[in-house]
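ok trying again, last paste got cut off:
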Amino acid sequence: MLVATEAMSTLANQTARDLRLADLRIVRVSHPIGGVDPDEIRVRADEVVDQVLALLTGTATRGH
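nice, full thing came through this time. structure:
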């Protein structure tokens, strides 16, 4: 499982293909991360925490 910003999604997908990681699940968060207020980062993390936990515990559906 990889967490990447939306702007890095294409690179993340291509790298996963290149490394033959067909099952790699990528969770996307808003871009940018650098220079963003810590409170905003917490909001972004809260938006994806359930998805991350589901992927880590194997309870996610294929749609993620």
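cool. Helices lie at 9-18, 38-57. The chain is about 45% helix and 10% strand.
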